Amino acid sequence: MITFFESGIHHIDTEKSIFNSNTEYNILAYDKKQLTNQDLLNQYTESEELKTKRYIVRKNESSIGIIEYGMSSPRANKPWLSILIIDQQYQGRGYAKETFLAYEKQMKSKQVKSIQIAVHAVNKKALTFWKSLGFEKYDERVYEDKLFYSFEKQLN
Predict the structure, then answer these.
(1) How far apart are CA 2 and CA 58, in angstroms?
(2) Three-state DSSP class for 73?
(3) Ramachandran region of residue 4, left (φ > 0), alpha (ψ -120 to 50) or beta?
(4) Which of 14, 33, 73, 83 could form an S-S bond across to 68 if both were Cys, CB 3.0 to 4.6 Å?
(5) Where are the beta strands (DSSP E) in 60-135?
(6) Residue 156: its pLDDT value, please?
């Protein structure tokens, strides 16, 4: 079973390990292979500014990923998912999908009508993943010199 435990500075080593197992993503998102404690501290500051909630994703007793989301996105004032990352050693087991479905269930229980995400346009694996979960592209934009596609999923 997937569970979420609130994260923060007290989980910095766990989070850094999860991010740094995903060097391809780090290069894509942060222009470096390995994140430092300062990089994570910067993320925590941004999370506070954006009023998002950040959780360690656990499968049984193992910390397998990170999920971060907010209830009011900066651009559209809608619920949004800002991070869903699974430790490399746990990928390929369906845990990202299971994590998203647990998140989606929480949002449905809060009467949320839709969820938005932004995906790096060059991240083909992520684009395929999000489309397979029912997300549809509705916009694109450049942010910090990188092209992103905006996706939304309607919840019924």
Answers:
(1) 6
(2) coil
(3) beta
(4) 83
(5) 62-70, 80-86, 114-120
(6) 80
Q: Which residues face 40 on adjacent strands?
A: none
Residue 111, φ and ψ in degrees, nearest 5: 65, 25
Note the pTM of the prediction, 2 decimals.
0.95
Please return the burial class of 33, using the count of CB atoms within 10 Å of its CB with bins 0-12, 13-18 and 19+: exposed
What are the φ and ψ backbone dihedral angles of 138, each rounded to 5 degrees?
Answer: -130, -10
Contact (CB, 8 A) for 32 and 26 = yes
Residues of the chain with pLDDT under 50: none
Q: What is the pLDDT of residue 76?
A: 87
Beta bridge partners of 142: 147
Three-state SS string over the chain comes to: CEEEEECCHHHHHHHHHHHHCCHHHHHHHHCCCCCCHHHHHHHHHHHHHHCEEEEEEEECCEEEEEEEEECCCCCCCCCEEEEEEECHHHCCCCHHHHHHHHHHHHHHHCCCCEEEEEEECCCHHHHHHHHHCCCEEEEEEEECCEEEEEEEEECC
How far is residue 94's CA from residue 152's CA, in Å, rounded to a whole number?
A: 21
Predicted pLDDT of residue 34: 98
